[in-house]
Amino acid sequence: MDRHAPSRALLGTQLFAQVENTRVLMVGAGGIGCELLKNLAMLGFGHIELVDLDTIDVTNLNRQFLFQRQHVSQSKAHVARESALRFNRNITIISHHGNIKDPQFDLAWFKSFNLVFNALDNLDARRHVNLMCVAGKVPLIDAGTAGYSGQSTIIQPGVTECYDCHPKPTPKTFPVCTIRSTPSAPIHCIVWAKNFMFPQLFGEDEDEGDANLVNDTTNAKQVQELVREAQALRELKRSAGLPGFAERVFVKIYRHDIERLLSMEGLWQMRQKPVPLDVEALVAAANELRDPLADETAHCRVRTIEETTKVFLQSTAALAKRYAASGPQSFDKDDDAAMAFVSAAANLRCHVYHIALKSFFEIKSMAGNIVPIVATTNGVVAGLMVLHALQVLEGRVLETTTDLLTAPPAAQHLVSRPNQVLARDKLFPPVSSCAVCARAYVQVAVDTASTTLGDLLEAIVDAFSVLPVDNVTVLEGARMLYDPDFDDNLGRTLADLNVPSHHAFLLVDAYDQDDQLVQPLSVYIQKSGKKGVEILGNVPQLWTKPAPPKVQDAPIAGGDELDDEVVMAVDDDDEDIIMTESSAAGNETGHVGRTRR
Amino acid sequence: MAPDHKTQKYDRQLRLWHAHGQAALEKAHVCLVNGTATGTEALKNLVLPGVGAFTVIDAAKVSPDDVGNNFFVTRAHLGQPRAKVVTALLQELNDDVLGHYIDDDITPFVAAHPRYFDRFSLVLVTGHVPAAALLALDRVCWPRGIPLLVVKTCGFVSTLRVVTRAHHVVESHPDTPVRDLRLADPFPELVAFVDTFKPFDDMTSAELTHVPYPVILLRLWREWRANHQDTPARGVPQSDTAVASAAASAADMENWDEALKQAFLAYTPTSVPRNVQDVLEHAILDVVANADAADEHAPVTNNSVVANPVANVTAGCAWPPTFWALCAGLKSFVAEHGRLPVRGSVPDMKADTATYVSLQRVYRDKAAADAADLHARVRAIAVPVVTTSTPTTSSVSLSRSSSVGPSPATSPGMAAVDAAPTTAPALQIEAATNIDLATVTEFARHAATLHVLSTPSLHDEYARAHPEWTRALSDDPGMLSIYVVLRAREVFYARQRRWPGAHAADSDVDTARLRSAARDVVKALVMGGGNALVIEAAEGGADAHGEAGIATPVAPAVDVDDWVQECVRAGPAELAAVAGYMGGVIAQEAIKLITAQYVPMMNTYVYDGIHSKSEVLKA
Prior knowledge:
The structure holds 2 protein chains of 2 kinds.
Chain A: H1 5-21, E1 23-27, H2 31-43, E2 47-52, H3 76-87, E3 92-97, H4 107-111, E4 115-118, H5 123-136, E5 140-146, E6 149-155, E7 173-175, H6 176-180, H7 186-202, H8 208-215, H9 220-237, H10 245-262, H11 279-288, H12 305-326, H13 336-352, H14 360-368, H15 375-393, E8 412-417, E9 420-425, E10 440-446, H16 453-463, E11 472-476, E12 479-482, E13 505-510, E14 516-518, E15 521-527, E16 533-536, E17 544-546, E18 578-580
Parallel strand pairs in A: 1-2, 1-4, 2-3, 4-5, 7-18, 10-15
Antiparallel strand pairs in A: 5-6, 8-9, 10-16, 11-12, 11-13, 13-15, 14-17
Helix pairs in contact in A: 2-3, 2-15, 7-13, 9-10, 10-12, 11-12, 12-13, 13-14
Chain B: H1 5-9, H2 11-27, E1 29-33, H3 37-47, E2 53-57, H4 64-69, H5 82-91, E3 98-102, H6 106-112, E4 122-125, H7 131-144, E5 148-154, E6 157-163, E7 167-169, H8 188-195, H9 205-208, H10 213-227, H11 238-249, H12 254-261, H13 274-280, H14 283-290, H15 322-337, H16 353-379, E8 382-386, H17 412-419, E9 427-431, H18 437-445, E10 451-453, H19 458-463, H20 467-475, H21 480-496, H22 507-527, H23 530-535, H24 541-551, H25 561-570, H26 576-595, E11 603-608, E12 613-617
Parallel strand pairs in B: 1-2, 1-4, 2-3, 4-5
Antiparallel strand pairs in B: 5-6, 6-11, 7-10, 8-9, 11-12
Helix pairs in contact in B: 3-26, 6-7, 10-11, 10-12, 11-12, 14-15, 15-16, 16-18, 20-22, 21-22, 22-24, 22-25
Family (chain B): Belongs to the ubiquitin-activating E1 family. ULA1 subfamily.
InterPro entries (chain B): APP-BP1 (IPR030667), ThiF/MoeB/HesA (IPR045886), ThiF_NAD_FAD-bd (IPR000594), Ubiquitin-activating_enz (IPR035985)
Keywords (chain B): Ubl conjugation pathway
C-alpha cells in the first residue's frame, strides 16, 4: 500500500519527489512544532531533523498533542519524534535534544538542509536561526502565534526580507527609582517583588548592583538609602530558614523601609506619601487565618490585606527554608511558592502606595508575561508553513523577484481578526540597511590555535579584490579587532584573541574609498585541524556602489516605513521585564534584578 | 496549594477566554459528520482545549487514503469503522472529554432522527456530503438555533460556511480598549466632581500638574461654550485651540499634553454604536417585550426568532435566554436615558494618586448605579426561558471494551436514543427574576461591544438569487469561482451519484460534466432555484442545458475552467497540510461560537492553498 497516495496525487509526481528527497530542519518542537511535524510527516517529507532543548511541561498538554501526561519532563524533541514515527515509519526523523546555538549546529550543518522551519519560542534563538539561514542561503519559514493571531512568513535569503529587517520591540524597562522608591502602577510593584525582592531574599548574593547604583550620582541621598536598605536585607538574609524570618522581612520591607523613604521629604512633594503597614496587627490577624490559597476559586478575586499578609508570611517562610536547604532560588511562574510570594509581596506594596490591588491570576499573567496560546492557531499556522514550504520547493518565491512589490504569490499571513480569518501581506525585498541581509557571507576553515588575525585578513583581502587593502576594519560583535590605526592584534592567533569557539562571525567592513561603498562582509570561522586558511565554497561577489554625497545626512528612506507589521509574540515566549537605570544618556549600566534568559 | 489540574493544563488558553469561556466549552457537545482528515484535525483542536463531548457520525470504513492523510489512523485500522477509530484516538488526547460515535451515514440518520441533534451545541460537516443531506441538516439545525459549520474541500482549496441564526457576542475583546468617559455628555456626578477643583488661575504650578485631563477638558469646554453660545456645538475645532492656549501656559505638563491629545473627546458625544442598535432592534426583543404575565404558560415554540433555544447545551449557552432578558432591559434603559450604562473604568492618566482614585470612584459609582437601574428593569421583564428537557441519559459514552456490532444500523448510541422519552425543547415564559446583579454588572460593562450576528440559512443560500454576486461573476469572479465549482460538484453528484474525479479514466467526461454543472450553478446564482439542482437528480440535465444555457442574457459566462480541472484532478483526495490549516480555522471559529466571545467570521470563508489567498463571501 502506498501511504503517500493522496500527497502524490495532489502534489504531482515531480513535486512529490522533491518533497521525498528534501532535507528539512525544524527548530522547536512545541506548540507549532508538534503540528508542523505532523504535517511534514503526513505529507511525506523524507528527511526531517528537529531540535528542541525543552522538556515537556504539564501546561503544554492543552495543545502539544504529540505529548501525553506520561511524557512530562521528557525531551520534547525525542518524544515528538517517537510519536510521529508511530504514524509514518517510511520517513527518517532525527531528533536532537539541545540548544540550536550549540557548537555542533554549525553553518555547514545548516547548509546541509534545503529548508528550515522556525517554530521557536524566543526572540534570541529565532534571530540566530535567521542569521544562520541568511549566511547559508537556506530558505526559512518563520512562524509565531499569540492568542487567536499568528503568522507564517517565507524568508528567502537575498530575495525577501529577513527576520531582522525590522527591529523587534525590546522588553519593557522601568527606571530603578520607580521600582525601588516611587511605584505608581501595579506592574511596578510586581517587578519590584519579582525582579528585586525575590532575588534579594532567595537568590544569589549580588553586590554589583549596589556598586552601579552608587555610580549614579543624580540623587546621592536616595541612592545611599537604597544601598543601606540592601545591606540590611543581606544582614537579614543570614537568618533565612530560622523561626521568625518571614515576620522580620515583613516588618523590614513594609514598615522600616517605607519609614526611611518617608524621611526623604523631596520625594513626596509631588506625590502621595506611602503609608507603612500596621505590621503587628496584620501579623496577629494573619495568624488567625487558615491558608487563603487553599481556596483556588479566590485566585480570580483580590484577597484582603490580612489574607495577603498570611500568604506573604507562609510563602516567605517556605522559600527561605528552601534557600537554607538547597541554595539560591530563581523565580519561576510555575513554582507555586514563588508565585504566591510575588503576588502577595506586590499587593502589599500596592496597598502601601495606594495602588489598586490585583488578583493572583492577573499578577501571574503580568509576572510571567504569559502569552495566551491555543491549539487552533498553532494548527492554522503550521498548515500555512507547509503550504509555504511547497511554494519554496516549486520555486514560486524566486519567480517573482522582478515584481516582488506588486505581485507576490506567496505571502505573510496574519490570521483571525474579526471577519478576516486570513489576511495577506506582501513580501518585500530585503531592507537595504538590515544588519543581517545587507552583508555578504563567506565560510573560512582555520586552525584557531595557529592562524593569526593577520593570516586571516591577508587571505580575505586576497580573495576579495574589491576590498581596499589598507582600509578595512575587522570586528567580532562590537569588539574592534583591527583597523588601519590599530594593528596590534595582527600577530595574535584567533584562539589568543578569544574568538569564540563556535558561531563566530568576524565582520569585515571596508571604509569608503574612491567615493564607492563596498558591501560589508561576514566571515564565519569554521574550526579545522589543518594549518592555514581555507575559504570554503564559492567566494561571493561583493557589490560596490557609488557613495552618496557626504554633504549631509540623507533622510531615512521612506521604504522603511512600510513596516507597519505586527510583531507576533511566539508560543511560550516569556521575555522578562528588565529594570534599567533611568538613563537619559542611554547609559544602561545598572541592570538591577535579573533576566531569566 | 497546587492549582487544580485543569487550571494548570488550560493555563494558556484561559488567558484568552477566561474561566467562564472554559466553562462554556466544557459544557459544549460538538457533532462531527465524517471523520475525514479535516474533520479530525478540527475535532483534535477542540478536544485538546477541553470541549465537553463530541459525537462522530460516519459510516465509512478506514481506507488507504485515510491512512495517507489522517494522522490519527494507521494501517492497522484498515477496514474498521472510521467513526469508531477516530473517536478512540481523539479520546486519548484528553481524559476530560467524552467521545461518542454513530456508525451510520448522515443522509439516512438525519432523516430518521432529527431530534437526536437537540443535544448538540454545534454541528460540523466535513467530507463529501451530498447537498441534499446538507440541506436536511440545515432544516434540523436552523429552527433549533444550533450553529452549523459546513466544510467543503477539494485538493488545495476549501470553504467553510458558518450558518447561525442569531449568534450573540457579549465579550468581543476589541483590539483597542473601549474608552468611556462621557466628556461630551457628562453625568451630574461628574460635573459635581469637576466643580470641586479650584479655578485653574488660582492653582500653583504643582497643583496644575495634578489635574487629570478629563477635568481639564470638561472645564475648558464649558468655559468655551459659555463664550461661544452661537457656534454650533459639535465638532468644533476651535475647542482644540482653547485647550492648546491653556496648555501653552501650562508648558511641559504631561496632563495638559494628554488633554490636548484627547480634546476630541470633549465634543464627541457618546452614541449607541451600530452593533448595539442592531441588538436592540432585533426581532426577538419584540417577543420578549410583548410577553406579559398572562401568557406565562403559553408555549411560543412557533416564534420564528428564538436563538439557541436549548439552554444548557447550545453554543453561547453562557447567555441566552439570560442574554435576551438583559438586552430587553438594556433596550428599556436606552429608551429612557438615551445612552448606554457607564462602563466605569478609567484609563491610566497623569494625576496624583488621590485625585485619580476619586475620579475612578466617580465613574465606578455611576457604573454601579446604572447597573442597579438596569437590574431593576431586567427583573421586571418576562422573557421566554427554556426549560432543559434534553435527556442526558441518552448520551452514550464510548466504552473501549464494548464490542461494536458489524451492522452499521445498530450502533450502540441508537437504541438508547430511540428508547429515551424525547420531549421536544419547550419554551416557557418566566420572569427573569433570577438574574443576579453580578451578571447584570458584567453585561453592562460590555454594553458597547454587544453583537448579534446572523447568516441566511443554507436553504436560503441555495434557493434564492444572489444579485450581489451577479456583477462580480461577470467582472472578476475571483474566489467566487471556487465557491461555484464546489457547488457544481454537488450538482454533479446529484446527477451522477458519484463525485467528479473518482476514477482517473473518466476525467475528460467528468471535466465536461462538471463544467456544465458550474454553468447551471452560475445561472442559479443569478436567477435562484439552486436548491432544485441538487435535490432533483435530473438525469441528463447537464447536457440538456448545453451551450444554450450560458447564452441566456442574464447568466454571465464565467471562466471557472482552471478550478474545474483542478477539482477533477484532485478527486476525492485530501492534503494533510490543507486539512491541518482548515482544521485550525474551523476550530477557532467553533470556539468563538461556543464561548460567545470574540467576533466570529460570518458566512463563507474560501481558502486557496495554491496561491495562499482567502476571502470571506457574504451569501
